[in-house]
Amino acid sequence: MISEPEMVDEFGVVGTGEVVGDLARKPAREPRPPRPWWWALGGAVLASAVWAGVFCLYPVGDRRPEMHGYRLNEDPCPTVRLKALGAAISPREPTSGSGPELLNDSALDRVRCFLPLRAMSWKGAKKSVKSRWYTGHSVGITVALHKRTDPAAEFEAMRGVTDTDTGDEVKVEKVPNLGDSAYLLTRDSGNAELRVLEGGAVFALSLDAYTTYDGDGSEPPSDDGPDISDLSPYKSAMISDMRDLMKSLRD
Fold first, then answer.
1. In whole angstroms, what is the distance from residue 204 CA to residue 175 CA?
2. By three-state DSSP, how is residue 107 classified?
3. pLDDT class of 225 with cuts at 50, 70, 90
4. What is the DSSP letter of 105?
5. How far apart are alpha carbons 9 and 22 in whole angstroms?
6. Number of helices and strands (H, E) in the chain?
7. Over residues 127-156, mean pLDDT
8. Which range is least confidently modeled, 11-15, 143-147, 221-225, 226-230?
9. CB atoms within 10 A of CB 125
């Protein structure tokens, strides 16, 4: 059997002489010239705009909170006047009841202290019996400046939680026109705490009442002393002293 002669076409392709169609004989397309540089730049700008929009909708990382000029470079407790509570109850003692707990860090500045008020004698209902009951009050102050993370969510989550559990129900009252958010927490056991959030700054001013009996070793009378459970009369004084504290720490 005689094979068909091989043929070499004009493109140097070896074949059998069969017709394979026009497609095989058409020359390849010339390479497309590159797109101008400004087109690529326009695409990059468009992509950047899209990603910028995504970042605005879904921000990456926590934003630093606004500090509103608050500073905590030193212990403020010695200069806290407690003018309103001093007028409503009794003046503060000249020295703090405990040493201040001062923290200065790149992420958080924090201070906590307790300021006792002068104990006052209490006159009972029975005027013929000299009362030896004394009532005392202690004021606690806490200032925390969060410089890296926003404390707002934590502040709201903790609005009904206190450090001590006395078994009494905690009553929470919203306080308007004070910082970004403010709450007054009270217990029937003679405790009230005012908490304020403004930007990255969190303030707390607590008022605790207690009673003592000076009986020279004798048992206290059966009347069990004065009732200290209601601290509502001092609400406005606590708010006033809180405003003074916040003002003293602002530039």
1. 13
2. coil
3. confident
4. -
5. 13
6. 4, 10
7. 86
8. 11-15
9. 8
Residues with Cβ < 8 Å from 143, sequence gap 6 or more? Answer: 72, 76, 109, 110, 111, 112, 201, 202, 203, 204, 245, 249
94/206 Cα distance (integer angstroms): 18
The secondary structure of residue 3, as a DSSP letter, is P
DSSP tag of 185 = E
138 Cβ contact list (under 8 Å, min separation 6): 97, 114, 115, 116, 117, 207, 208, 210
**Four-residue CA torsion sign, 18, 20, 21, 23:** negative
What pTM was computed for the model?
A: 0.71
- CA 229, distance to chain mean position in Å, is 30
Closest CA to 177 of 246, 97, 102: 246
Distance CA 48, CA 44 (A): 6
Q: Which amino acid is at 167?
A: G
Cα(173)–Cα(182) distance, rounded to whole angstroms?
9
Contact 119, 132 (CB under 8 A): no
Residues 83, 78: Cα–Cα separation, whole Å:
13
Please tell me the distance from the alpha carbon of residue 244 to that of residue 96, in angstroms, as a whole number: 18
Each residue of 206-227: b (16+ CB within 10 Å) or e? bbbbebeeeeeeeeeeeeebbe
The mean-pLDDT minimum among 2-6, 109-113, 145-149, 180-184 falls in 2-6
